[in-house]
Design goal:
- By secondary structure, this protein is an alpha/beta fold.
- The protein has a single domain, classed as Alpha/Beta hydrolase fold, catalytic domain (Rossmann fold), CATH 3.40.50.1820.
- The chain is 26% helix and 26% strand.
- The chain has helices at 6-19, 66-71, 76-80, 104-119, 134-146, 197-202, 249-258, and strands spanning 32-34, 37-42, 53-59, 85-89, 122-132, 152-156, 172-178, 205-214, 222-229, 232-239.
- A 10-stranded mixed β-sheet has the order 1-2-4-3-5-6-7-10-9-8, with helices on both faces.
- The protein is globular, with a radius of gyration of 17 Å.
Length: 265
């Protein structure tokens, strides 16, 4: 599980100062290989080669690959401008097995983060996990079993069953969903009118507070709801649209998590 990687993150980050600038033989369109599987990595612009990097591990949507997220203005362009290392695993047969708790894809995610820590100095307190659609469901599944050292889950239009019981959980959960999404239903939870029942129960959330409305583009307004929880925080942004990654959503979450002034793109 990801908890076992904490030592690796600190060890490799310390080694970076002794070794000088880091180099990786795989980045951009050249995949990093782990056995028969692989992932892609996209370095942020202006990185000095030494400063430990926040990491966003993003699970791609169905029938796509990690390269799609890196080439996306709504994902890759958001990380490179904010000093974040984007890590995009490739799903077997371009999909993810998130249906059951014992999926091998959780272990694959662990292996990816461990390999990244061998190649780059990682800011171990700034590990974020995101995904879109099937990839969002995979991100939920991943942090459900390897999430204790994850700073935030950023879910986009996909989830696992709200009746799941998770052994682990990230420090913060942020999710966005379209109210007219006909591909993946908004994760309400049976008998509960408020979204993200699974995480609100797992993190000990009680009363919600309105977070106001915001938009990165004038044609799409997102309405936010926040929960302060005993063991973390939960935020959901709902919009009137369908099944897509909203403009500026990833960037805004990273800005808020990193203490930056929200900007677009």
């Amino acid at each position: 599980m990801i908890k076992t990687l904490t030592f690796c993150f600190f060890a490799f980050a310390s080694a970076a100062h002794a070794m000088g600038p880091w180099n990786s033989d795989c980045h951009g369109t050249t995949p990093c290989e782990i056995g028969e599987r692989s992932y892609h990595v996209l370095e942020p612009e202006g990185w000095d080669g030494e400063t430990p990097l926040p990491v966003l591990m993003h699970f791609h949507g169905w029938s796509r690959t990690g390269k799609h997220a890196q080439n996306s203005e709504r994902i890759g362009a958001s990380t490179v401008r904010r000093g974040v290392l984007l890590v995009t695993p490739n799903g077997a047969n371009k999909t993810w097995d998130f249906w059951q708790a014992d999926t091998d894809d959780v272990a694959f995610g662990d292996a990816v983060l461990a390999d990244v820590a061998k190649r780059y100095p990682v800011a171990s307190d700034k590990i974020y996990v995101s995904g879109y659609s099937y990839g969002s469901a995979m991100a939920w599944r991943y942090v459900c079993h390897s999430g204790n050292d994850v700073s935030a889950l950023l879910g986009i239009a996909g989830s696992i069953s709200q009746s799941e019981t998770c052994d682990e959980a990230p420090a913060a959960v942020r999710h966005v969903h379209g109210l007219n999404d006909t591909v993946a239903r908004v994760p309400l939870g049976q008998g509960d009118a408020a979204p993200l029942r699974l995480w609100r129960a797992r993190l000990g959330c009680e009363d919600s507070t309105p977070g106001g409305s915001w938009q990165a583009r004038e044609f799409l307004t997102l309405e936010r709801t926040n929960w302060d929880c005993a063991d973390g925080s939960v935020t959901v942004d709902l919009h009137p649209g369908g099944h897509f990654v909203p403009h500026g959503w990833i960037g805004r979450q990273l800005d808020e998590l990193l203490g930056l002034t929200p900007s677009y793109p």
